[in-house]
Design brief:
There is one protein chain. The protein is α/β, with parallel strands linked by helices and about 725 residues long. About 25% of the residues lie in helices and about 20% in strands. It folds into four domains: about 170 residues, Immunoglobulins (Immunoglobulin-like), CATH 2.60.40.10; about 180 residues, Glycosidases (TIM Barrel, Alpha-Beta Barrel); about 150 residues, no CATH class; about 110 residues, Golgi alpha-mannosidase II (Immunoglobulin-like). The strands form eight sheets. An eight-stranded parallel β-barrel has the order 12-13-16-17-18-21-22-23. Helix 12 crosses helix 13 and helix 16 runs parallel beside helix 17. It starts with 19 loop residues before the first helix and ends with a strand.
């Protein structure tokens, strides 16, 4: 909505209502702009668009009194060569077409208007602003006092009322005009892996190859490194189908993880081996094309809930300066402050049509132009929570649902935010990180009481969460670990977090880890403890890949990567977080085990059904061979479960129209520390069950067990049998 007239300077013509500082700075453009041929241009598309002859510039600001386009010297990005007032405004989009501008041109914007924090207005022509639609940035953000919009020298009560007039131009990265048609995708095709066949590998672009021993040093930690034959061979040999990249949108470099976006269209510059104009975009596309050729999907972890501009203490880099009131949720009674549903300082105002457009345009850009296969939405509930505050809970979700592009890719929500946990509440088409799965599986293998009933639900794809809203088991993204929290190795090696390296006196990170160190905190030479830890790792991995749903494996868990007990390594851009490619026999054994699990899941359709199991298709059985009773489920002490799947009763076709396997499967989960005698079912004339998995033995070999016999189920183990 437009602001009341008194809040906007009166405009009588182009440039009217400019502040004194803007008038002074504008003298730069007066003579230089005369050398550039221009015409009004168009309000769409937003951003800088090269059409082969010139460039159309378009940027949104509803409440600005004036907007200027600033051009910079490619050889000296600190030198502003032109400042061109934009006189055309259509639907609050300021636009111009410059005939003489070519790809490679560096640019930014300056806006002027009221600086009135009490009204949520932060216009300041001394702050260079990054185009929200920038495709590439010229360099990293330099943290300098000038990027703050307020007078930081004053006390808190006054500092936010006073404007900081120092010029941020030398310290803010510039957007670069690129030719988006200059790439040959050849015959690139999306792998389009069915959701029930999907196995996600969460990884970090830099961390995965930063220490790769045979990769060219210049390619380590880059898009090119991830798209290299060396990296792809590793991923395909493991058997995953989908690579989920931690944030690659240009972000502020103080965080290794990248959850502080600066621009939603630009690939992060430091991950590019080729940093020339357009180089990061081309390199990212080449990576995607190479991964697709190998049959691997690419999912982006995206952060549309907040930006790196933070709260009132944060810098003015882009959205704050273009239109703070439009882009962010502000406190109603005190709009100088920000609604913080994310715990990061600010929350994007997705109820505003231009903010919603920004997010939707960004998503479509990454699908259409960069060929990615889906998205994982960080703190997705914050996006819904903010919309709920405006009575528009489904605005963004509905927009995605009806979009002909976005509705056809994988959509994964992280279903929580600072105000609540909303797992199971997202609509059809959406998958979710299932934190209830993580917590229950951890508690079960830790040996906690009272986990049996919930464990049965999680193994079956969480029908209590997804079985009544049109979704499938595969909409549950099952995880035991993630980037935030213990690695799998550390989950079985530490009872307490050890985050001292983060410099926050170990106050950061989760305290509720549901971990168990197997008797010793941290590294040990005790062979019994180490054997138990390896068995527990296998138990977690086996549970993950035997469960209905979409499994997510975290980079390095397949080979026992450790962060030395750090469960919040957001600031550790070093060997603590990077993938360690130096393997010993123990790590190789775990990798081989993980690979065998993925092969088992791939070859056994009963483990990855498209539909939930009906009651007549399965049975939960006790060690005595009888069915579980309500009393067994509720007694609080049951730690041994048997899931019998009647494959011959399953009436389902795979995506190729073929009937799925009619094998009977028996999955045994024993969290007791002792061996449990388990009576195996007997059917007809068949005489033996085939053991196809046993986590108790690192060197497991398949074998036969007589039907109807007593099987000695080892303590703390998972065993799978086929009949």
């Amino acid at each position: 909505m437009p602001l009341p007239d008194p809040l906007l300077p009166e405009r009588t013509g182009a440039g009217a209502g400019l502040s004194k500082s803007f008038r002074m700075l504008d003298s730069l453009s007066t003579e230089n702009s005369q050398t550039l041929q221009s015409k009004p241009g168009k309000p769409y598309p937003l951003g800088a668009t090269w059409d082969g002859q010139g460039v159309n510039f378009a940027v949104f600001s509803e409440h600005a009194a004036s907007v200027a386009l600033c051009l910079f010297d490619a050889d000296d990005p600190t030198r502003e060569t032109h400042r061109i007032p934009l006189t055309e405004r259509t639907d609050y989009v300021w636009h111009i077409y410059l005939n003489d501008v070519r790809p490679g041109q560096l640019y930014g914007y300056r806006t002027d208007g009221p600086f009135d924090p009490a009204q949520g207005l932060l216009f300041n022509p001394n702050k260079l602003l990054i185009d929200p639609y920038a495709r590439v940035l010229s360099g990293p953000l330099h943290h300098h006092e000038s990027i703050l919009g307020y007078d930081y020298t004053l006390q808190d009560a006054e500092r936010f009322r006073a404007r900081n007039d120092s010029d941020s131009g030398p310290y803010v990265p510039k957007a670069i005009v690129i030719d988006e048609t200059d790439f040959d995708w050849e015959d690139d095709r999306r792998p389009d892996v069915p959701l029930n066949r999907t196995v996600i590998y969460e990884t970090h672009v830099k961390g995965f190859t930063a220490r790769h021993p045979t990769l060219d040093e210049a390619l380590r930690g880059t898009y090119a490194g991830l798209g290299s034959p060396e990296a792809i061979d590793y991923l395909t040999s493991l058997g995953i189908t989908t690579v989920e990249l931690m944030p690659i949108h240009q972000f502020s470099d103080e965080s290794y993880w990248g959850y502080n976006s600066v621009c939603y269209f630009a690939p992060h510059l430091s991950y590019a081996a080729h940093k020339t104009a357009g180089g990061p975009v081309t390199e990212f596309k080449q990576m995607v094309k190479a991964l697709h050729k190998a049959g691997l999907e690419v999912i982006l972890d995206v952060v549309y809930n907040h930006t790196a501009e933070g709260n009132q203490y944060g810098p003015t880099l882009s959205l704050k300066g273009f239109d703070n009131r439009a882009y962010y949720w502000l406190v109603d009674a005190q709009p100088q402050y920000y609604m913080d549903y994310t715990g990061t300082g600010n929350t994007l105002n997705m109820s505003h049509p231009r903010t919603l457009q920004l997010v939707m345009d960004s998503l479509r850009y990454w699908v259409n132009e960069m060929h990615v296969d889906g998205f994982r939405f960080d703190l997705a509930s914050a996006m819904a929570q903010s919309m709920n505050a405006a009575g528009q809970l489904s605005a963004f979700l509905d927009a995605v649902h009806q979009d002909p592009v976005l509705s056809q890719v994988k959509l994964i929500a992280e279903p929580w935010d600072i105000q609540g946990y909303h797992v199971g509440n997202f609509p059809v088409q959406w998958s979710e990180w299932n934190g209830k799965y993580r917590d229950c599986v951890r508690s079960f293998w830790k040996g906690d009481e009272g986990q049996a009933f919930e464990m049965s639900l999680r193994i079956l794809g969480s029908p209590d969460l997804y079985g009544n809203d049109g979704r499938q088991p595969a909409n549950s993204v099952n995880l035991v670990t993630a980037h935030d929290g213990f690695t799998l190795h550390d989950l079985v090696s530490y009872n307490e977090k050890h985050n001292e390296a983060n410099g926050e006196d170990n106050r950061d990170g989760h305290n509720d880890n549901r971990s168990w160190n197997c008797g010793v905190e941290g590294p040990t030479d005790d062979p019994d403890v180490n054997r138990l830890r390896e068995r527990q790792k296998r138990n977690f991995l086996a549970t993950l890949f035997l469960s209905q749903g979409t499994p997510m494996l975290v980079m390095g868990d397949e080979c026992g990567r450790t962060q030395q007990g750090n469960n919040n390594a957001y600031s550790q851009d070093n060997e603590l977080s990077w993938f360690d490619w130096e393997w010993d026999a123990r790590r190789q054994a775990l990798f081989d085990f993980t690979r065998s699990l993925l092969a088992l899941r791939r070859n056994q359709p009963l483990l990855r059904r498209r539909k939930f199991y009906r009651q007549d298709e399965i049975a939960w059985i006790r060690p005595d061979g009888r069915h579980m009773t309500d009393r067994n489920w509720r007694d609080g002490i049951t730690r041994c479960l048997g899931l019998l799947i009647y494959g011959h009763k399953v009436d389902e076709q795979d995506e190729n129209g073929q009937a799925i396997s009619d094998d009977r499967l028996l999955l045994l989960f024993n969290a007791y520390w002792d061996t449990v005698p388990f009576k195996l079912p007997k059917y007809g004339r068949q005489k033996a069950w085939e053991v196809i998995l046993n986590t108790s033995d690192e060197a497991f070999e398949p074998g036969k067990v007589p039907a109807g016999s007593i099987f000695e189920l080892p303590g703390r183990s998972v065993v799978a049998l086929r009949f």
